[in-house]
Amino acid sequence: MLTDLLYRLRALFRKDAMNDELREELAYHLEREAQKHAAAGASPTEAMRRARLSLGGTAQVEQRVRDQRGVRLWDECIADLRFALRQLRRSPGFTITAVLTLALSIGATVTMFRIVRSTLLEPLPYPQQDRLVGVAFAQPQQSPNDNQAGNTANFLLQHAKSFQSASVYTEGTSGANLATGAQTAQGAVQVAIQSIDRNFFPTLGVQPMLGRNFSVDEDRRNGPKAIILSYGLWQRMFNGDASIVNRVVHLNGESATVVGVMPATMVFGSDSARSLSPIADIWQPLALDTADPGYYGTNYNMLARLRDGVTVVQAQQEVASLNQPLYKEFPFLTQWLSVAKTIPEFKLWPLQQVLVSNIHSSIVALTAAVLAVLLVACLNLAGLNAARAASREREIALRTALGASRLEIVRLLVSESFLLAIAGTALGLGVASVMLPALMASAPMVIPRASGAHLAALFAITVVLVFAVTLLCGLLPSWLVLRRSAAANLHARQSAGATAPHGRMSKALLVSQTAIAVLLLSAAALLLAVFLRLRTTPSGVQPQHLAVAQVNLKGRTYASTLATTQFIQKVVDRLQQYPGVKQVAASNGFPLDRGLNITMPPAGALQKSDNVELRLVTPGYFETVGMPLLAGRDIAASDGPDAPPVIVVSQAIANKLWPGKSPVEEHVKAFFGKNSPPLTVIGVVADSHTHSLAEDPALLIFEPFAQQTDKSMKTLNGWFRTSFAIRSATGTGLAAAVQQAIHEADPDIPISRYTTMQALIDNSLARPRFFSSLVTAFAGFALALTVIGLFGLLSYQVTQRTREIGVRIALGSTRRQVLGFIMRRGLVLTAIGLAIGSAASLFLPRLIHSVMNESVYTAEKGAVGMLSTLPALAVACGAMLVAAVAASYLPARRASAIEPMEALRTE
Amino acid sequence: MTERRLELPQGTLDMLVLKALELEAMHGWAISERLQQISRDVIQVQQGSLYPALHRLERRGWIKANWAVSENNRRAKYYELTAKGHKQLATETSDWQKLTSAVDQILRMA
After folding, report:
1. Cβ neighbours of residue A432 closer than 8 Å, sequence gap 6 or more
2. Smallest Cα–Cα separation from B53: which of B75, B34, B79?
3. What is the predicted pLDDT for the residue at A400?
4. pLDDT of A23 strictly over 70
5. Residue range A844-861: average pLDDT?
6. Does any CB of chain A come closer than 8 Å to the CB of residue B36?
7. Which of A172, A202, A287, A323 has the largest CB neighbor count within 10 A?
8. Which segments within A636-783 are labelled E, that is strand?
9. Which among A20, A68, A69, A72 is the top mutation candidate for probing chain B, defined by the most B β-carbons within 10 Å of its own β-carbon?
10. Which chain A residues are Cβ-neighbours of B49 within 8 angstroms?
């Protein structure tokens, strides 16, 4: 085996030396043979003649020996490739177009492949990661997730037997103020903190690189405060100081002990639209307790490691069997959590699927779009190749007549496509290496970084691509040539114009191209329509010249209403004096940002399926952000802690609860504290959007900060940031003033975010913008390719049929008739493609729907209401038609300008 | 030379070449001469077929080639059996003997 390989390699790389040796060997043989004959008495010439005769011709023997080397096929392929290379060099226009087309589409394909690979296929970086599952208490139709309420998670921890270990944690991170000084909390910085129970790291199978995991005591309500640092924060803030363990730092003004540091590989987080930062800087114990304010809401997540020998299916059956006992123990769950018609149940998925579920269909859709573009590019090349093959029919016929087998002819024809595929792929890899970082940087969601150990996979996909492209581009046209006999090929030149099978093939290629391009165009139009519609949807606030500064008022310092309102008042007063500032107000929860939502009805009249959003505001808030007051009055400074409690409701609530009459002076039950007096509605404001422009305007209830109980104030401060809305003459240049005002109010509070309202709105649209612009670019590319294909095909046909057209004109066809005749050919093909593409487009909304659901946050209804297929289809077909007319017109005009006398002379 | 010379059955040339090389290394012409002599000119060895066979055997690793000085003081390519070649020759020889004796038997019985 090995000798064979070595021999063949030598035959490949030392070919000349081997041929020389063979020649010498044969010369020696002839010499000895001639000597033998001479010794028998023959003359020298006669002796040599006899010697040659018995050997049988050196050239033939040499050829037969070379055949024995086992590299003949290779030699011939090389010869074919050399020939193909010369052919390509002779038509640089075609070659450059083909290579660039392929490079772009292959580059996009490789880029998407690497993203798919690093997100959907890459195993999680934990030991035996396939044993990890995410366990949800969720609606049956929900995509993979691991959401849990506190009580449902605890119920599972107590009863489920399929898990070797399980952990309750919170998926998102929240902002916290971390100060490293040992004595004071000064110089605090904003960090992202994630709450996890003490089983989190052991379940994942990760150990701290320094220190230890949380103890049982620390993971208990009111237990000792402990935190674990991420590797990144440890490097950034503590310069990788190994003595950090057991040091006391201040988190939100309270002292906490650093008990451990996690290794760099421990990056866990999601890109949930509502989380502040995808990757945690600090972990703190979750200390799950029934007394937690959010205990009965779906504010938690759960992951688990399956017991050895338990499959995902078995575990699923086991947790499903716990549904009934759960509802028996907590009958109120059926009312509280039934947002939809169905009731939630226990469900689990491999953790890998849970973590990528929010980008899964976006990636799949983008990959499909990229593959569609690649397909269009290949079909386009196949069309061009078919035309070239047709013009080579005579050459091929000659080769066949001289004894070339069909296989050899195919090899010759495929060689060109192979070279193009190689060049396109090589360039495409280069394109991908530019495209990938650019895409990563511009993508509005976190794409997990590729770990780099993908060379083998990349190589595999490259080889697959080269072969797929070669086959698609090269084999179709050569099949065309092969179907015909050699005799027919030799006669081919004598018929003028396109031959029937060749015409059919070109037409089929063009129709498929058009159909795919229309599909892509419709998708792009749909996505663009959604994006444009979202962009023009009023947010409910006036974003011009409105700046937003946000702080975290967490910890013991801000556990009271008084401390909170005093801080807010100081900042508001200070900012109001700043020149150029017109109005300042504060709010807990902000439009298009996070805020408290409650599913509990305040008065019983609301249906249980409604999410009510609660916002705390200061007097003047509505005017500052630009929400018009429709009835009643604004919250005033006089609505203080001792005054009767008041609320302002949004138009949507007013319409729902008190249809047809004014809600002012009506009463609703208090949210917090069952014994509190009822709340009086004092005003109605116009609707606004809370999380996403894709949703219906929220049911909003506004309460004054000053009238909160300490308990609810502490909870709200713990969950959400306090936002200052600052309306000024220009809207810019306030950063320093804001910094100073907040520092003066409390030097320990860092600014967690300073931005503009417009930026918040833009940010909420980043994903739809990203997807619609990407798909639009793909569609544009496909459209351009289709136009090139149509133009090429018609031009070629006009050239082929010059004589026929000349005859037509000579026989009395008007130029207008010829123009129409050629244009009709292009437009009929386009029309067939349009019909097929349009039919296929009708399936798009469902696909786009799932992409949009991931890309804009929608609580329940989703963006499906925004999708209207017909206008999108009309736009797509319109674009295609305009392009087709343009592409057909030029060849048609050329045909109509043919001079009959010249045309008849051309053959 | 009135006797008709026999064509070699398909595939036997390789075995004969191996056999010829069993005792000593030889160059191509010598092999062809040797085969001619031993078979007493009964078997017609196509000289043109000899060289493809030699290269085929070399590729399979049954013989190896070296350039050496020949008996008439010229550079010639000498072939010799490898260990693998010896094994192959033994196998082929025994296969051949089994085959011929079986065919022999059939011819005699029938």
Report:
1. A106, A107, A108, A110, A111, A114
2. B79
3. 79
4. yes
5. 61
6. no
7. A172
8. 646-650, 667-668, 679-685, 699-704, 722-728, 751-756
9. A68
10. 64
In whole angstroms, give the CA distance from residue A578 to residue A736.
11
Q: Is A835 on the interface with B (CB under 8 A)?
A: no
More confident residue, A680 or A535: A680
| Cβ contact, residue pair A56, B74, below 8 Å | no
Of A2, A29, A69, the CB nearest to B28: A29
Residue A607's pLDDT is 44
Confidence at residue A862, expressed as pLDDT on a 0 to 100 scale: 44
Q: Where are the beta strands (DSSP E) in A711-802?
A: 722-728, 751-756
Task: Round the average pLDDT of chain A to a whole number and report it.
Answer: 81
Q: Which residue of A32, A37, A58, A69 is the best one to mutate when testing the B interface, meaning the one whose CB has the most B CBs within 10 A?
A: A32
Residue A376 has a pLDDT of 87
Torsion of CA A440, A444, A446, A450, to 10 degrees: -10
Q: Quick check: A38 contacting B, CB < 8 Å?
A: no
The Cα A669–Cα A652 span in angstroms is 18
Residue A879 dihedral angles phi and psi, to the nearest 5°: -60, -45
Please state which of the ranges A267-276, A480-489, A508-517, A787-796 shows the lowest mean pLDDT.
A267-276
Q: Residue A781's CB: how many other CB atoms inside 10 A? A: 19
What is the rounded distance in angstroms from the CA atom of residue A458 to the CA atom of residue A110?
A: 8
Measured between alpha carbons, how far is residue A304 from residues A129, A149, A848 in Å? 11, 16, 32
Percent of chain A with pLDDT over 90: 19
Residue A852: per-residue pLDDT = 64
CA dihedral (A378, A383, A386, A388) in degrees, to 10, reads -100
Confidence of residue B86 (pLDDT cuts 50, 70, 90): very high
Q: What is the pTM of this model?
A: 0.71
Cα–Cα distance for residue pair A22/A129, rounded to 1 Å: 61
How is A344-397 classified by DSSP, letter by letter? PEEEEEEHHHHHHHHHHHHHHHHHHHHHHHHHHHHHHHHHHHHHHHHHTHHHHH
The pLDDT value given to residue A854: 62
φ, ψ of residue A440 to 5 degrees: the values are -60, -40
A63 interfacial to chain B (CB closer than 8 Å) = no
Pick the closest to residue A876 from A373, A518, A529 (CA basis). A518
CB contact under 8 A, B28 and A28: yes
Q: Which is more confidently placed, A692 or A624?
A: A624
Would you place residue A622 in the very low, low, confident or very high pLDDT band (cuts 50, 70, 90)? very high
Q: Give chain A positions within 8 Å (CB) of B67.
A: 21
**Partners of A195 in the beta sheet?**
A284
- The domain spans of chain A are 2-70, 129-357, 499-539+769-907, 553-748
pLDDT digits (tens, 9 = 90+) for A213-260: 999 999 998 889 999 999 888 998 888 888 999 999 888 888 899 999
Task: Report pLDDT digits (tens) over A582-612.
Answer: 999 999 988 877 777 765 444 444 444 467 8
What domains can be seen in chain B, in order of their start residue?
6-109 (1.10.10.10)
Q: Is the per-residue pLDDT at A455 higher than 80?
A: no
The amino acid sitting at A251 is L
B61 touches chain A (CB under 8 A): yes
A209 pLDDT more than 90? yes
Minimal CA–CA distance to A370: which of A86, A111, A689? A111
Angle CA(B21)–CA(B22)–CA(B27) in degrees, nearest 5?
A: 15
Identity of residue A82: R
Token representation of residue B48 = 């043109």
Contacts of A2 in chain B (CB under 8 A): 61
3-state secondary structure A303-335: EEEECCCCCHHHHHHHHHCCHHHHHHHCCCHHH
